[in-house]
Specification:
Blueprint (H helix, E strand, L loop, with lengths): L1 E3 L12 E10 L6 E11 L10 H6 L3 E2 L18 E4 L4 E4 L1 E3 L2 E3 L7 H5 L4 E4 L12 H16 L34 E3 L9 H8 L3 H10 L22 H4 L6 E8 L10 E6 L5 E6 L5 H11 L5 E3 L4 H4 L1 H9 L16 H19 L7 H13 L13 H6 L6 H4 L6 E5 L9 E9 L9 E4 L5 E4 L2 E3 L2 H4 L2 H18 L5 H8 L40 H5 L10 H4 L1
Parallel strand pairs: 3-9, 11-14
Antiparallel strand pairs: 1-10, 2-3, 4-5, 5-6, 7-8, 11-12, 12-13, 15-16, 15-19, 16-17, 17-18
């Protein structure tokens, strides 16, 4: 926002950031260190003296007695005089006086003090958006004054004061801004706000004026229309994006990840959204110019974040993506150009790429499936409790949603696992066929619905999926089916790994002799009760997935004796 001084001749500070600031206060009486958190304050790094907005602190529930002791009589002086107090936490800050300024000493907290749970953290102001100027407060103050005078039977005449001009008001929003060459003594915003007035809400809801005022202070009105600009027969928009989806108090970093080739489903890149507590989600895109579609899907699947922080790419800061974010009232704060280390999305992409490369190599996954594998890697990493201090023992998605999340959709299989798939009778697929597991289907079907790859290089969506049993994994006929599946898949993808095996299949036109007939024992579509079947799942481990024997060789190195080297 723009910050102005007490006189119009003063220079206006433009684009001043609104931030959440922490300072450390060392109490000399209790010998404790308090971390004081000031939300919704103006942040001007060039200033060195912090200024407090007393009204905003009082609005948050703190008790501020700013009259110096020397201005009080002896009978009025108490321990609470000329102090800032928080009754809930027992905070008591005695103020010093340097005419005409009341102040107390604070300092920049260290990282250890921020992370130390023994230090008390106290919010001095609310994190809700602070409106420094309200045209109704003057009228409310006057009404209360009339009630007080009426109760004392001293009604004479009151002078009605008009609302002062913004440029002549004392400081309103800022509670931590510092001393500049010219004192900053006023704040005004260039944005428009059409909030409903307390008198109107009290009349429409049939409630008291005080209740209406408190309600407006604790709620938001993001979709109120400006009726003064309605002209003619112009129709309103049928939906309001800012109210359709929930909102979370969390910023998300955004970046675009390009793949090694055009994927099987025609995707060339991914739009990745990530948070600092190691949650991330990716949306495949055919071209980067369609990145705005991913933002709409993010609002629908997750929620509207407090802000989007991309890099300086034009596709992430301008155009259609900016329009979608503006309709949802989600601000975009780009990072400094050529500084990828500032983006959490870059960190998540780096860690997911490492996991992606291990999967692609270990499972011999075709390159054209890179988008499905990368989305899967981000999904499982978001469900990992990585033990980082910022996670506090939780996983990223639990922190995002605020409750314990379920991993059923990603725990039964690993990427590119062999599995049996049942298809409906009226589909063009075989009733029961061998497929490869490509991860959850996030946009089609229910919560436990999967994407599967057939030998004909088709991605199908099914929920009736079961793993291979132990006896099936070691059976020769199933191994032969896997071999035929891989050869046909590679033929259709244009990559034959073994020429001799391929020639053997091509010389035989009767493919049925290589196919193991599968008996369809599935019941027809009639109402029946599900039987509880207990599978010996812990033993259903393939010989190619014996990770316990493999893990001990990770990061190992060989050592040779000098005699052997000779």
């Amino acid at each position: 926002m723009n910050v102005t001084g007490f006189h119009s001749s003063m220079k206006t500070l433009k684009n001043v950031h609104v931030a959440c600031v922490c300072v450390a206060y060392d109490c000399v009486s209790t010998m404790n260190t308090y971390i004081l958190v000031f939300d919704q304050c103006l942040y001007i790094p060039s200033l060195d003296v912090n200024l407090l907005c007393v009204d905003q602190m009082r609005d948050h529930g703190l008790k501020v007695n700013d009259v110096p002791l020397i201005r009080l009589s002896e009978d009025e002086r108490t321990n609470e005089s000329h102090s800032i107090m928080c009754n809930d936490t027992g905070l008591h800050i005695p103020l010093c006086f340097d005419k005409p300024i009341s102040y107390f000493k604070c300092r920049v907290p260290t990282v250890d003090e921020i992370e130390n749970n023994q230090n008390l953290t106290i919010h001095m102001t609310s994190s809700a958006k602070w409106e420094p100027y309200d045209e109704t407060t003057n009228q409310i103050e006057e009404n209360i004054r009339r009630q007080v005078l009426s109760s004392e039977h001293e009604i004479d005449s009151l002078t009605t004061y008009s609302n002062p001009d913004v440029s002549s008001c004392p400081i309103g929003l800022s509670q931590i801004i510092s001393h500049f060459e010219q004192k900053v003594c006023g704040v005004k915003t260039s944005g428009k706000s059409y909030l409903i007035k307390p008198e109107q809400l009290a009349k429409r809801w049939r409630t008291s004026l005080e209740c209406a005022t408190r309600t407006l202070n604790k709620t938001e009105q993001r979709a109120l229309r400006d009726w003064t600009r309605v002209q003619g027969d112009r129709r309103f928009r049928p939906t309001q994006l800012q109210l359709r989806y929930p909102r979370i108090n969390c910023v998300m970093y955004c970046d675009v990840k390009y793949g090694p080739c055009k994927s099987l489903e025609g995707n060339t890149c991914l739009a990745v959204y990530a948070t600092k507590f190691q949650w991330a989600k990716a949306y495949p895109l055919s071209e980067e110019k369609y990145v705005s579609h991913s933002l709409t899907n993010l609002f629908k699947d997750v929620s509207c974040p407090a802000a989007i922080i991309p890099d300086s790419a034009a596709s992430l800061t301008k155009g259609e993506l900016k329009k979608v974010a503006s309709r949802a009232q989600v601000p975009i704060y780009p990072l400094e150009p050529y500084n990828p280390n500032q983006s959490t999305a870059e960190d998540m992409i780096r860690e997911a790429t490492r996991l992606y490369q291990r999967f692609m190599t270990a499972r011999n996954i075709p390159k054209v499936l890179w988008d499905r594998v990368f989305v899967y890697c981000l999904e499982i990493r978001s469900h990992m409790a990585l033990g980082l201090p910022i996670q506090n023992g939780e996983c990223g998605k639990s922190i995002l949603q605020g409750h314990t999340v379920d991993t059923s959709h990603i725990a039964d299989f690993s990427i590119y696992d062999w599995c049996w798939t049942l298809s409906p009778r009226n589909s063009n697929q075989d009733r029961k066929q061998l497929t490869r597991w490509l991860g959850p289907s996030f946009d089609v079907g229910g919560e436990v619905c999967y994407a599967l790859l057939t030998a004909k290089v088709q991605v199908i969506i099914r929920s009736s999926v079961s793993p291979l049993k132990k006896e099936e994994i070691n059976a020769d006929d199933i191994k032969e089916m896997k071999k035929l599946f891989t050869i046909e898949l590679n033929q259709r993808l244009g990559s034959a790994p073994n020429r001799s095996d391929q020639d053997e299949i091509l010389q035989t036109k009767d493919y049925d002799k290589y196919t193991i007939p599968i008996e369809d024992t599935s019941p027809s579509f009639v109402e029946y009760e599900d039987d509880e079947e207990v599978l010996d799942r812990p033993n259903d481990i393939s010989e190619e997935d014996d990770q316990l024997k493999f893990d001990k060789y990770i990061s190992s190195s060989s050592r040779m004796m000098e005699d052997d080297m000779e």
